[in-house]
Amino acid sequence: MFIDVFSSLIVVPRFLSSIAPSSHHHHHHHHPTGNGIITNSGDPDQKPFPLPPDNNGIHLAIGPQCGTLFGNTADINAGIDGGTFETIVSFGDSYTDGGKDDGSPLDPPVLVPPSPLAGGRSTNGLTWVELVAADANATIMDYAQSGACIDLSLWPSNPRKVDFLGQMATFLGQHNNLNPNTTLYSIFFGINDYLASLIDGDHLPQAAQVLLDQIEILASPPTNARNFMVLDVYGRGTTAPSGEAFKQSIFTGLSRFHEDGVQVGDASGAVKLNVSYINFANIWNGVLGSSPGFEAFGYTSTDSCTQCTADLGCTTIGMCDDPDHYFYWIPGHPSKETMRIMADYVQEVWKQCSV
Predict the structure, then answer these.
(1) Burial bucket for residue 258 (CB in 10 Å: 0-12, 13-18, 19+)
(2) Are 23 and 130 in contact (CB under 8 A)?
(3) Would you indicate the residue range of the signal peptide (predicted)?
(4) Cβ neighbourhood burial of 193 (10 Å; 0-12, 13-18, 19+)
């Protein structure tokens, strides 16, 4: 079913959506490199699936570009302590889609050719958010959906009829009782909104406002969320004034939520939120541009290892010989090694960009 839905998008050059990477490099026993998957079906809690500790030589060759609250869009950490989280609730598109969109435990990232989806992910391993969760020793609750935008009502051309609002409805409908102090809410949209804006017109200002509105809803009863991370790579190596304005309005909104707070329920006074903004454009620009360029990160290619065709959809048939050193796995979608450095980048922002 999933691959069908996915394939049907492929004939449109706009199938690109977002995935969530997950892997980690904690101490774990030696196991074969490659996909070396360890499963533990006996444990109801989602435990990390280890990846090779050396990430096949792929590493960050750039650092965060830290900024200040209310300044220009930049990497920032205003109150997030990565060591305190027991749960990460994740909203997003194919970059963050773990193969299930109801927050339940994810399947191991096993590839069964010719499908290029590892356990339903739009990548060949763990998504970046699973890796962030593994690094934090936290449980991941993933609601992200391949092809999702922020609000479908703004984007009639969006190929898949999935959005942040629908993910919110799923999450809120579960009445999860999560501790606000130990739960991080991760929000990663923009790729599909930007693609749709090229067809439907620039409704990105409205999309940014809808995203900020959802943070206010999550911060209010009954969820009472207090910790938020917003990530962006809308243009994947290209920039546009509309996309930059989209990022800036979200960044300024997050600054306001931290400094001035949000009005929640009947509470007297505003509640200040812990927020982090992760500007993944720095990775894409570093890899796809000349400074420092893809080789500095350990890649041999900025291409995708697998291809999507009108006949076959996305497939491993005809894939590259060296997937471990390609930037993308499916066209426009990070490889598992890229997912790992995305997770590393989150850690670096949390460590370096405190305000």
Answers:
(1) buried
(2) yes
(3) none
(4) buried
Global pTM value? 0.86
- CA 145 to chain CA centroid, nearest Å: 10
pLDDT band at 266 (very low <50, low <70, confident <90, very high): confident
User: Taking residues 246-263, what's their average pLDDT?
Assistant: 98
Which residue reads 């969760």 in tokens?
Answer: 133
User: C-alpha distances in angstroms, 308 versus 7, 35, 263, 328?
Assistant: 8, 22, 47, 13
What is the secondary structure of 240-298 as a DSSP string?
Answer: -HHHHHHHHHHHHHHHHHHHT-B--TT-SSPBP-EEEEEETHHHHHHHHSSSS-GGGGT
Cα–Cα dist 92/95, whole Å: 7
- For residue 21, how many C-alpha atoms fall within 13 Å in the half-sphere facing its CB? 27
Neighbours of 266 (CB within 10 A): 6
Coil, strand or helix at 238: coil
At residue 43, the 3 state secondary structure works out as: coil
Instruction: Please report the sign of the dihedral spanned by the C-alpha atoms of residue 196, residue 200, residue 203, residue 207.
Output: negative
How far is residue 258 from each of residues 90, 185, 264, 330, 355, measured CA to CA in Å?
20, 15, 14, 37, 11
Domains of the chain: 2-25+50-352 (3.40.50.1110)
CA-wise closest residue to 279 among 223, 324, 240, 233: 233
- The DSSP string of 84-122 is G-SEEEEEESTBT--S-SSSPPPPP----TT---GGG-S
Q: How far apart are CA 90 and CA 16, in angstroms?
A: 19
Number of residues that this document lists for the chain: 355
Residue 190 DSSP code: -
Question: Using an 8 Å Cβ cutoff, are 214 and 253 in contact?
Answer: no
